[in-house]
Amino acid sequence: MMQVLDSAEAQFAVEAVREAALLVRRVQREMIGSGITKDDKSPVTVADFSAQAVVAKRLADRFPEAALMGEE
To answer: Using CB atoms within 10 A as the burial measure, which of 1, 12, 51, 67 is most buried?
Structure first.
């Protein structure tokens, strides 16, 4: 069953995603073409890892009991 976020949790999520998006834009401007390939041959960029790290850190700081399953 999906849990509904309260407004403070939703605001936290929006802020975390905004922070990650700003970092992705910066990385894309400064490091065009930097990346690796996953086992399935799909590309993973420094921006991908960076965005996931930002969200994971923010989540761990605010909700230490929460688990995160990331794509990268």
So the answer is: 51
As given in the structure block, the two tokens for residue 44 are: 């993973």
66 sits in the region (left: phi over 0; alpha: psi -120 to 50; else beta) called: beta
Gyration radius from the chain CA atoms: 14
Choose between 5 and 47: higher pLDDT.
Answer: 47
The residue type found at 48 is D
Residue 27 lies inside a defined structural domain of this protein = yes
Amino acid at 7: S
Domains: count for the chain:
1
In a domain, 69, yes or no: no
Residue where the block lists tokens 């989540």: 59
Residue with tokens 């509904």: 4
